[in-house]
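#lab-general

N.A. 3:47 PM
ok so I finally got the sequence cleaned up, no stray characters, all 350 residues accounted for. can someone with queue access submit it? mine expired

B.Y. 3:52 PM
send it over

N.A. 3:53 PM
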Amino acid sequence: MSNELISLASLKEHYHEYSISQNKEQIALDKNIDLPLWFNFNELINRYFDEAIDEQDSSSNRLREFVSTLRLRLQSYLTDDRISEPLLLGKNEEIPQALAKFLAFILGDTCKIFQDSQGDEFTTYFKSKISKDAFDKLDKDKPSQITIIDMSLLPYDVLETITGLIGRLILEFVSRFDESERGKTPIVIALEEAQNYIPEKNKGDRVSVSKKVFERIAREGRKYGISLLVSSQRPSELSKTVLSQCNSFIIHRLQNPDDQKYIRQLVSAANEDILKQLPILPQQHAIVMGDAVRTPVQTKIKTADPTPNSNNPEFISNWLTEPTNDFPDYSGITQAWEKGKKYTKSGKNN
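B.Y. 4:20 PM
back already:
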């Protein structure tokens, strides 16, 4: 009887040691931030922080004080719909093939991985944007040529992080193609108002995550078939590393002396005469230089079709016009605003 008790106690001890070792291995795997694996955001806050602190034998109390501020900030993201909703932070169920579906959506290949029988967020969103008849007419072998990602409603403090994350995922994805297929999917990432994503100077103590990512794409993206199209009204605020990799420039009118000086430093001295026209360029005109043309030229850009709603407001005529009772739609605009959505005149807020 005593031998049985000793064996049972020994068995429990070995099982306990085995459970601890397995738990440590699982924690180490879960904490590998370079693996694109799904994780529960609540567990990150309530479990992984504490386990990481407990692993530190010394000064754990002081470390816990430092981490508490980060924990509070991350918890605030859960209650902020502008962050939790697009990042799916409140979702506790793992989405099957989430990374594949996200990349297919970003690259315009959703049709290649779409399955009507699934009910996850990606599938539901895609089904809500396209009717069944329209989906049947889509060519699954022909991807969409343009994907527009609207980040206008994202909070400014996470804008760079999310933009950098998308850029990194695209670069990491295409860099894992088989060598025989490398470069077969040319991608151009267009950064509108690029000074928000690739600033030359960090703002305070914050290091721009997106700047690091897009500087890497500017240096290494060519061999994977990725190019950058950088659009900005303040070129002097952009990363010099990114602009140094640009081989063609389309320059519209620039009034700021710092921007003019910066452009002159980017191009050769032979273009000095034509660059003197920058402050007086008419609307819809631009100077094109670089590998795209044989010699620097001034050109008139074709009118966009459809024309963007970017004309200057007609102040005098609008002030003299009798206002209508249904404009502005105070109730509709504020209701959409409170829900964190965009207001549209049709009443369908996105």
